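Session log. Operator J.P. requested a structure for one protein chain; no other inputs attached. Running the standard single-chain path with token output.
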Amino acid sequence: MSWRRAYNTLFLCTGNSARSIMAQAILQRIGAGKFNAFSAGSMPKGEVHPEALALLKRLNHKTDGLRSKSWEEFAKPGPELDFVFTVCDNAAGEVCPVWPGQPMTAHWGIPDPAAAAGSKIDIARAFADAYGALQNRIAIFVNLPFGALDRLSLQSRLDAIGRTRGANDDVA
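Structure written below.
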């Protein structure tokens, strides 16, 4: 898979209010120029979770234009997708639309911080943990040697990234 243009990458979740939104913001920052990041949901909440927005703003991410939207927007003619990643268990098990461009797909499940209960600190920790896991996986992803990998090898690497937990885990 040689680099010819920015890779269009879609992050999917059910509600598109937290994990997929954070993944979009992370990839927009660390993949700038090489990746275009998008997010969507199978049953979008219609708004970005306030804690997700607050965390992204504290970490100096651009949040303009982040919105909860349906994955149907990406099943229509538009940007040809290169990669589609599910970041929650529900979206991984759902029947997805047929994506234009036959993108490579992988499941990178992350516990749902929006479902966290407890104190404000507990909830903030859940969002920070989800952000950290996404940051780690996306950092590995953007540093893959895309030009040196055939499609099968790249798929294997994408699947391995989904099993990555901490910053020191090896997926090679």
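Operator note: The beta strands are 7-13, 35-41, 83-86, 104-107.
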